[in-house]
Amino acid sequence: MSTFTRRATLSLLGATLATPYLVRSARAGTAINVGAMRLASHAPTYIAFERGYFTEAGLDVNFDYFEAAQPMAVAIASGDTGYAMTAISGGLISLAEKGVAKVIGGALAEEKGISGQKILASKAAYDAGLTDPSKLDGKTFGMTQAGSSFHYMGSKIAAAEGVEVHFKPLQKTGAVIGAIKSGQIDAWSIVPNIAATLADAGAVKIIGEVADYIPNYQVTTVFTSTRNAEQEDAQTKAFLQALARGAADYNAALVDQTTDAADKDAIVKLVASYVYPDRPIEDASASILSGAMRINSGMALNKASVVDQLEWFKSGGLVKDGITYETLVDDHYVDVLS
């Protein structure tokens, strides 16, 4: 396998976890960089770090922070970042086709009965009549980049409603937030904690649920370099199993609510310290609680959803038509959901 620098990678863009928590890294204290975003969907990473699960797995973790999925994919492929968890993007698929990146597990998922991602309208667009997704025809829909999860969601929503939307790439999630608050875009879709924060402030209106248009959507995945997937088996298992422990704590406290109040409060404070480091805990708590979506147990992967996403990318000419599920995914590390 060739070694790719970040510069070279940028140029390219023109066994299961059924028995949890038992595998340790072959080299105690192995240093790895883990990609992260300041979103509640990354909570398992922060919980695994703060509760010592990575350390117990023999991993010395340092966080690399990103504001969009595609730059994270570039960092993974170049080897600057070891593992990451975010949405499937056109950039990630193209890097997988080049043999330098692999999806190795699942993470955030839409699940019936649990509050999921919301479809938003700017206040100006809502006041002008955009009160539900059927009225999106001709409207501008925000996204980070072409081939991002926002592009995928907006396209699926528009197709289901039989309307045409105009996508506006804004590169970073923060820029999309600013654009919808100021009325520069008409609509967007985003995780519930961000949606609730914006709606509570009166900046947007929630006009629909993503799950009504994309049921069982595998929103985010865990991925790494092909080298790690193929040559660092013990390290990769150790990382995934530590991450799965963080996910289990998160689901128990905030999704299934099977823990006591003290543990729930501890998880909320832990997550808030990363996601909303500049906000008082009293303000951050409501957003963390409202944003609690399911993280797949054991980092299991929903194959049907990944295939659907891949076919959408291919149908739009965003990636090469010959790319297969096997090109993108190495699913031998986790359980596969049908």
Automatic annotation (TrEMBL):
Predominant location category: periplasm
InterPro entries from the UniProt entry: SsuA/THI5 (IPR015168)
Gene Ontology biological process terms from the UniProt entry: alkanesulfonate transmembrane transport
Annotated localization: Periplasm
Protein name in the entry: ABC transporter substrate-binding protein
Pfam families named in the record: NMT1 (PF09084)
Annotated signal peptide: none
Upper lineage: Bacteria, Pseudomonadati, Pseudomonadota, Alphaproteobacteria, Rhodobacterales
Keyword Repeat: no
